[in-house]
Amino acid sequence: MDAWALSYGSSVAFVCVSCAGPQLATQFGTELKLKNCHNTWVEEDDMPTWGQLGCNGLIVLDGSHSVVCRASPAYMQVRELAFRHVETLLQALVGSQPVPHLVPGATVLLKGLVAKPELNGQVGMCVEDEGPSGRCAVALRDGRTLSLKPCNLEVVGATVSGDGCSGGGCANGGCGTGQCALEVDPQRAEGGCTTEGCGKEGCAKRSPVEAEDCSRLDGAADGAGGGAVIKVPSVKVAVLDEEHARCEAALVQLAERRDSAALRQLLCAYEEHFAHEEALLDQHLYAGVKQEGGFSADKSARSSHFADHERMLSEIRALLLLGSDSLDDAISDAISAAEVQRLTAEFERHATAYDGGYADRLSAAMAL
After folding, report:
1. Residue ranges of the domains in the chain?
2. At what angle do helices 337-350 and 238-257 cross, to 10 degrees?
3. Can you name the residues that pair with 17 across neighbouring β-strands?
4. CATH of domain 107-155
5. pTM
6. Alpha-carbon torsion, ordered 4, 10, 14, 16, to 10 deg
7. Assign residue 9 a region: left if phi > 0, alpha if psi is -120 to 50, beta otherwise?
8. What is the pLDDT along the chain (368 residues), one digit of tens a residue?
9. What is the CATH class of 210-367?
10. How far is it, in rounded angstroms, from Cα 353 to Cα 349?
11. C-alpha distances in angstroms, 301 versus 162, 180, 182?
12. Could you give the CA distance from residue 129 to residue 136 in angstroms, rounded to a whole number?
């Protein structure tokens, strides 16, 4: 924000607003060395009726204070594209140009393709807005990047959302947290949306991870070795620390084997841990936040945290789907060392950025 404020000068006002009083505003100003943007706070009685934490995206207003963007893509979901999304909007507004419909970070649905009709219905992400060629660059889940006309793209809701449905387009109460659905019958699941789409009554089908893949990790936290040492900070809740150790063991095993069986075991460890962690957080810290009116820091934190769970699961599922015809359980090195390293770094980042944030509050709440 401060770098942007320095870059855009008086053309754009960048405002950081604390929803936890002046102390937090002062802390952020000091730690981030804010000098060029506006840094303020809002009193509890004046709390806005909507909004989100900065990690969930930014709100963009035009010169007449009309809302142009209620929430830009979250950095944790799209990385550098989140910044490019905002910059694309600002460049249009500063230049008195219409706000572009397709901007970097936007989730799009492919449609109306004649040359490659098999791609119609696929979901991708805009990584470059419309250039002189009149086409946008769109990254697909299988790793390909295509140059497509805007008329063949429809902007859809974010594929990852902590409060909504993702990856399966499910309805009628079938969506929830963590994609770790509890089976009601073989075709129906409650509690999560998956890449498997929807079953009966619009509810998500359970992800096809075999139970035997999950059971292989029992005791692995004590027996894993030979790979890189992974140890995230304690969250001060013994059962969650044990689950973190199981995830760490799965990552070590993946580094050693680099096959799809190890990747499925990692997915299973994540699914079980994320579902349990979300349930504990909802029970002890976030009870009732989904029903709260107006802006809630806890509600926004919950949304951001749970959405990051969904993103991590989706990345692993995408790897499994991408390699469904080529990854063999018996073939080592089927998953690149760079991919394993990235997954490991993502787990460590998540545990530090999100899990470390609730450690004191959750442990205290569970001790009552």
Report:
1. 2-94, 107-155, 172-208, 210-367
2. 170
3. 40
4. 2.30.30
5. 0.56
6. 120
7. left
8. 899 999 999 999 999 998 888 998 998 899 889 999 999 999 888 887 777 677 778 999 999 999 988 888 888 777 788 898 999 999 999 999 888 888 898 888 999 999 999 999 888 889 988 878 889 999 887 778 999 999 999 988 543 333 333 333 333 333 333 333 333 333 333 333 333 344 333 334 444 443 444 444 544 444 444 445 677 899 999 999 999 999 999 999 999 999 999 999 999 999 999 999 999 999 999 988 876 666 677 887 888 899 889 989 988 988 887 655 554 554 455 788 888 998 999 999 899 889 988 999 999 999 98
9. mainly alpha
10. 6
11. 9, 20, 24
12. 5
Contact (CB, 8 A) for 43 and 19: no
DSSP 204: B
Decide: 351 and 280 in contact? Cβ < 8 Å: no
Q: What does the block give as tokens for 286?
A: 């976030």
Alpha helices, H only, the chain: 2-8, 21-31, 75-78, 81-94, 211-215, 220-223, 238-257, 260-284, 297-322, 337-350, 356-367
Q: Which strands make up the sheet holding 145-148, listed edge to edge?
A: 145-148, 136-140, 123-128, 107-110, 153-155
